[in-house]
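Weekly modeling sync, notes
Attendees: S.R. (lead), two postdocs, one rotation student

Agenda item 3: backlog of single-chain predictions. S.R. asked that every request posted to the team notebook include the full sequence so nobody has to chase files. The rotation student volunteered to paste the first one in as an example of the format we agreed on. Action items at the bottom.

Example entry:
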Amino acid sequence: MYAAAYDTPDAIRAGNGWYQTFQQDIADLKDYSVLTMPVLALGGLYYPLLVAQMEGKATDIRFPELKGAGHYLAEERPDEIVRELTGFFA
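Predicted structure, as returned to the notebook:
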């Protein structure tokens, strides 16, 4: 599935372009208001970093940790993802 999605030069350019905006994204974050709606921040391998990055960004953040998951949470822990999303949106 991923090979098919990145099978053209434009797709690779678009995917890599996302990473090239990180510095601007970081600068822009300084001006964003604190979110007041509930936020679900799912984390796996880099859970502690996720918690640190989200600190102060919202007033109601839920931080489920999907232990043992890496980068592709939905593929690695599909049942846990469904459970967390269902509970969050219920």
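Discussion: group reviewed the output briefly. The chain has a mean pLDDT of 93.
Action items: rotation student to repeat for the remaining queue; S.R. to check formatting next week.
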